[in-house]
Design goal:
The protein is an alpha/beta fold and 352 residues long. The chain has eleven helices and nine strands. Strands 4-2-1-5-6 form a five-stranded mixed beta sheet. The protein has a two-stranded antiparallel sheet with strand order 3-7. Strands 8-9 form a two-stranded antiparallel sheet. The protein starts with a helix and ends with a strand. The model is unreliable at 346-352 (pLDDT under 50).
Length: 352
């Protein structure tokens, strides 16, 4: 499913007078404000139908309309150019030829605290359907069926409060999609008790989060309100856990580099979702028993690249020294980098 013709026909940049372009903090006049609303409305339709990677940018800019400036309009124009450049981007809906029991509904939940103009938080949800072998760590092609980027229902004191609201909304979205999927396969439900029993038996579901604190509270803390400091957040979390257990929804944790909903809470954070779209919507859901965060994984990857570059540099200098018949002494010496002790070859060239 694509919206290439829609983007090419209806999406246009807003014109800005040259003398006003440099004044980024200047409030918009009535004509510019009207054009901004039109641009964001057109972008919102694209983002809500086939472009989940743009949803957060549009949502956050819509929250700025009340106090929009030239800078807001310029960022909207930049987004228009990006969307038009990728107008052929589409969503795939594969035919797996599987029974209902062999499918799984997976919802990625994320939140970003106090990143809106009024200091409210943003939650992001992305729900997809795929073969249930994904829950066992297999890479499979998935179909993205619904996503959402919006302001959290209420203000929160800390990041766990925002994450809890995202997980609560995500559990509800996962439940609805599983029920809809069961009805599409011809199953009917007579009462609430029968609904829960049937859904648990017929469908598979999972909620994926990247908050280690909330995940530990949901899976390991059995105290009142799961040990969450905020009473309201703890109550919401308790209900979400109970409902998830009632219908057999798995609770999963991933690092931030594998969180598909990250693009729905922060602007210009599209790396993960673009990786999914460029890979024909194939994804793997793996449980990391060591719970290594995305930040640590990035650091480890950076250190690995540094070691490779140093080893390459030293080998090239050694070749040059050998070709020029320079004295060259090879020996290993431990070297500290950050909080790790690593062994690097330290080669010295002695002056003659």
């Amino acid at each position: 499913m694509t919206q290439e013709s829609y983007v090419e026909k209806w999406l246009d940049e807003c014109s800005i007078e040259k003398e006003r372009e440099a004044k980024k903090n200047l409030p918009l006049n009535a004509e510019e404000l009207s054009q901004l609303r039109g641009i964001l409305g057109t972008l919102a339709w694209k983002a809500s139908q086939t472009g989940p990677q743009y949803q957060a940018d549009v949502s956050l800019m819509l929250s700025e309309v009340k106090n929009a400036t030239i800078d807001t309009l310029q960022r909207a124009n930049n987004l228009v150019r990006e969307v038009k450049r990728d107008a052929k981007q589409c969503l795939r809906f594969p035919a797996w030829n599987l029974q209902l029991q062999d499918l799984a509904v997976i919802t990625w939940c994320d939140a970003s605290q106090h990143n809106r103009p009024d200091k409210s938080s943003t939650l992001g949800l992305l729900t997809a359907i795929g073969p249930k072998t994904m829950l066992e760590g297999e890479e499979e092609e998935i179909a993205i069926v619904t996503w959402r980027s919006s302001k959290t229902p209420r203000q929160c004191l800390g990041s766990n409060g925002a994450e809890t609201q995202a997980i609560t909304e995500g559990e509800d979205a996962n439940f609805r999609v599983r029920a809809m999927l069961a009805e599409m396969f011809g199953h009917t439900f007579n009462d609430k008790a029968g609904l829960y029993v049937k859904l648990k038996k017929l469908t598979n579901g999972a909620i994926v989060m990247d908050s280690r604190g909330v995940y530990d509270a949901m899976t390991g803390n059995m105290s009142s309100l799961h040990g969450v400091r905020s009473t309201r957040a703890g109550y919401e979390l308790t209900l979400a856990v109970r409902q998830a257990l009632d219908i057999g929804t798995q609770l999963r944790w991933v690092n931030g580099l594998a969180q598909l909903a990250d693009c729905l809470t922060k602007k210009n954070e599209r790396k993960v979702i673009l990786q999914l779209l460029m890979g024909n919507q194939r994804w793997r859901l793996i449980h990391d028993e060591k719970f290594v965060s995305g930040r640590k994984m990035k650091k480890q990857e950076m250190l690995k690249k540094i070691r490779e570059q140093e080893a390459l540099f030293v080998s090239e200098v050694a070749k040059m020294a050998n070709a020029c018949m320079w004295p060259w002494d090879d020996h290993e010496e431990p070297r500290s980098m950050g909080d790790e002790q690593i062994q690097l070859p330290l080669n010295t060239c002695q002056p003659t």
